[in-house]
Specification:
By secondary structure, the protein is mainly alpha-helical. The protein has helices at residues 2-29, 34-56, 64-73. The protein contains three helices and no strands.
């Protein structure tokens, strides 16, 4: 359930941040709505890329999963040590 929540938060946050940056730039440069649309698409692409990295295990998260992957790469198995 936590992974699903993280995926949702990654997607929604990246789209909102991209849209907010585009909106602010549009207001400042008087180019509405072009920059907001561009940054909306860039935010969506960034969100999809983050989810892809998460699902492939290429993210730099900390915690149990990352520690287990490091131990497997080093040839250790902490679960069997006990």
């Amino acid at each position: 359930m936590g992974l699903g929540m993280r995926i949702g938060v990654e997607l929604v946050t990246s789209v909102l941040v991209g849209t907010g940056i585009g909106w602010a730039l549009d207001a400042w440069l008087k180019t509405a709505p072009w920059l907001m649309v561009v940054f909306l698409l860039l935010g969506g692409a960034a969100g999809v890329l983050n989810v892809y990295r998460l699902m492939r295990g290429m993210d730099e998260t900390v915690g149990l999963g990352q520690a287990q992957r490091r131990a497997e790469r080093a040839g250790e198995n902490p679960a069997k040590d006990h």
